[in-house]
Backbone:
C-alpha cells in the first residue's frame, strides 16, 4: 500500500450540508456515503466511490463503483468509507455532511476521528461553522492568522500532559478529564498556537473557513 501524502480523501455523508468545497486534485478521492450521493448529484460533483446500505437513499446509485452492504452490520456506513480510504493509502480525511441531524451518528463520527488518530491518520468534520478533529499523543499547530473559538475536550477517561500555548487561556502539563469541560470556548489571539497531549486523545473544535483548512492540509508548514 502506497501512502498518499498531502492528498485528501473526501467523505460525503447524508446530514444537512451548508456547502461542499472540493477542489479535487489528481490524487484526491471522493467517497459518497449512502444518501450523501444525492448531495453530490445536486452539486454536480462526481464521486469516485459510493458505499452504504442505501437505507437512506432508498435506491442503488447509478454509478460504476458501488459497494453495497447489509443494513445490519457492525460498522457504520461512514466507518466503512474510512476503511476504504485507508486501504487506498489516504491519511487525510475531510468529511462533509457528517455533523448534525442525528446526534448518535455525530457522536459516532467523533469516535471515527479518534480511530483515525489512533491509526496515524487525521480526520476533519466540517459543518455548522466548525471544524472538528482529534489527536493522540501529539501536537497540532495553528497559524497566527486563525480567528475565533477553539474548544478542547478529553476524548477518553483522561488526557495527560495537555499543553495549550498561544491561546487566550493556556494550560501546561495539565491532567484533563472527561468530566470537567475546562477546555470549552478558548480563543485564538493572533499568535501561532499549539495544542499537545503527552498521553491520551483530545477532541478539538474550532472556527475556520473551509478554503483555509483545505489549503493548510495541502500546504503543511
Residues:
Amino acid at each position: 500500500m502506497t501512502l498518499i501524502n498531502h492528498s485528501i480523501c473526501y467523505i460525503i455523508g447524508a446530514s444537512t450540508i451548508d456547502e461542499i468545497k472540493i477542489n479535487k486534485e489528481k490524487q484526491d478521492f471522493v467517497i459518497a456515503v449512502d444518501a450523501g450521493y444525492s448531495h453530490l448529484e445536486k452539486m454536480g460533483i462526481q464521486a469516485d466511490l459510493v458505499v452504504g446500505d442505501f437505507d437512506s437513499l432508498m435506491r442503488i446509485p447509478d454509478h460504476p463503483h458501488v459497494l453495497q452492504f447489509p443494513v445490519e452490520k457492525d460498522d457504520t456506513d461512514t466507518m466503512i468509507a474510512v476503511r476504504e480510504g485507508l486501504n487506498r493509502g489516504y491519511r487525510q480525511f475531510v468529511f462533509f455532511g457528517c455533523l448534525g441531524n442525528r446526534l448518535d451518528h455525530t457522536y459516532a463520527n467523533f469516535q471515527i476521528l479518534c480511530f483515525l488518530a489512533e491509526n496515524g491518520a487525521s480526520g476533519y468534520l466540517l459543518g455548522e461553522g466548525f471544524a472538528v478533529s482529534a489527536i493522540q499523543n501529539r501536537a497540532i499547530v495553528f497559524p497566527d492568522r486563525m480567528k475565533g473559538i477553539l474548544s478542547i475536550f478529553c476524548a477518553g477517561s483522561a488526557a495527560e500532559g495537555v499543553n495549550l500555548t498561544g491561546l487566550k487561556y493556556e494550560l501546561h502539563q495539565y491532567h484533563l478529564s472527561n468530566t470537567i469541560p475546562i477546555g470549552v470556548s478558548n480563543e485564538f489571539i493572533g499568535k501561532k498556537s499549539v495544542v499537545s497531549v503527552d498521553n491520551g486523545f483530545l477532541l478539538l473544535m474550532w472556527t475556520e473557513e473551509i478554503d483555509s483548512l483545505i489549503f493548510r492540509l495541502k500546504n503543511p508548514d
Q: What stands out?
A: The first helix runs from residue 36 to 43. The mean pLDDT is 93. Residues 9-17+25-128 form a domain with the Rossmann fold fold (CATH 3.40.50.10240). The chain is about 20% helix and 35% strand.
